[in-house]
Amino acid sequence: MNVLLCCCTGFSTSIMVKAMREEASKMGRADIKIASVGTDQVYEYIQRADVVLVAPQLVHEYEHLKALAKEAGICVYLIDHYDYGNMDGKRVLQQMLLQKEREDREEIKMDKVSSFIEAKLMPIAAKVGSNKILTIIRNAMCATMSLLIIGSISILLTSFPVEAIANFLAPAAPFLNAVYNCTTGMMGLFTAASMAYYSAVEYKTDIFSSIITSIAAFLLTQITLEGELNIAGLGSTGLLTAMVIGFVTVKVLDFFKKKHLVIRMPAGVPEAVAESFSSLIPAVLILMVFGSVSLIFGFNINDVISKIMSPLSFAINTPWGYAIYHMLCGLVFFCGINSAVVIGVVQAFIMQNGAMNEAAFKAGETMQYAATYATDTMIWAGGTGATIGLVFLMAVFSKSKTYKTIGRMSIGPGIFNINEPVIFGTPICFNPIFLIPFVLLPGVLAFTTYILMDSGIIAMANVAMVPWTLPPVVIGWVMSNGAMSTVIWSLILVIISIVVYYPFFKMADKRQYLSEMEGETE
Fold it and tell me: Active site includes 7?
C-alpha cells in the first residue's frame, strides 16, 4: 500500500511520515510505503498512491484532491488536527487502515469570538484558498523558488560580507553573475512556463502545447518596436505579464478545445502530432494578439499590467498594508487553514520586490522595497504567528506536562519555521487565548520592520529569495549580506515574541496544569 501525505511544502508531513513508518514497522506491515509531498508536487505523485492523507492546514484543498483522486479510485482522508499536532503516527495509521472518513471531528469548546471566526471567517478563507486562479499562481510561484534561491546565493557570494572569503571568491564573480542572469534574471520567462503548466494541469489541456505557446507569446511581448529583445523584461519587470499570459494562454486553448475549434488529424496519426495540430489555431490567435500589442500598437505591456495591478502593489508596499497582510496570514491559520492561501495573493509582488532589490544591489543602486519574501521569512520567526517565543516558553517553563511535551517536540521544527505541531497540538487554532498574539503580533512586527527599513535604520533585504526554513537570526545575516543592523533586529524579533507570548502562555499553561491535576485526583 502506497500512502502519500500532503501538506503545503512537505516539511511538516515528513515528521509525521517518520512516526508512521516506525509504527508500521512495529505492526510488521512492511507492505505499507509512506512518503510526503507539498501541494506543488501532489499532482505529479497522486496517481501512484493508494491512499492520500491531507494535513489539516490544507482543509481548503481537501475536496479538490478528493475529486482529483476519485477518477483513479484513490482514497483521500483529512488528518485530524489533534493527531497532527501531536504527530501521533500510531493513531493516524490506525485510522487510515480503518478507511473511515473523519468528517465529524471532536469540536473544541470555544467562546463566542472563536465560534464567530469558525462560522463566518473560516468558510471565506476556505473559499479563497480553493480558488483555481490563486491555486495556480501559488503553485507556479513555488515552482520557480529553487532557481531564484540559486540566483540569490550567487549574489550573496559575489558580495560576501567577510572580506577574506570575498577576496577568495572574486575570480569566480563572472561565473556567479552569469548564474544570476540565468536564474533570477529569467524570472519572468520561468513564470510564463510554470503558470502555463499548472493552468494546463488544472484545466486538463495539453501541457507541452500550453508551455511553448505561453513562452512564445511572452517573448513576443518583450520585443521592442526596433525589433530588439528587452532583456530586463525577461526578469522581474515582466513577472506580472508572464503570469497573465500563462493563464490566458491555457484558457484560450481550453475554450477552443471545448468548442471543437481545432484541426482534427486522421486516426493513426501519432498523439504528439495530433496534439500539436489541435493547438495550432488557438496558438496563432494568441501569438497574433500579444504580438500585435507590442509590435504594432507599441504598448509596453509590462507597464500596462503593472498599472492595472498597482492598487494591490501599492497596498503591500505601505507599512499598514504590509501589517494587514501579515495579520491575515495569522488569522487564516487561526482558522486552521495554511497561510499560503493569503501569501499566494501577494506572493508575486513581494517576490518581484525582492528581485528588484537584488538587481539594484548588484548594480550599486539604492534598494527601495521593504516588503520582500526574505523580510517575510524574518518576521515569521518560528513560523506563521512568530511562534518561536511560545515554543521556547512551553519547552522550558511549562508546568503542564502536555504543554512541556508539545514544546519540546516542537522546538526542533520551530527553529526551522515549521510550526504545525504547536498550532494543532496546543492548539492555537480556534483557541481564544492565543488569538491576540498569534494574529496581532505578526502585524506589529511587519509594521515596525517596514518603518525601520524604509527609514534606513536597518538594512533592507538585498537577497531576493532565501530558504524559508532558515533559523531566526541566521535569516537576518543571509538576507542582508551580513548587515549587523538587520542581524540585531532579527534577534530582537525573537525576544519580542517571547515577551508578547508570555502572559498568554502563562494563562493557558495554568489552565492546562489545573486540568491535569483534576484528572489525577479523580
Answer: yes
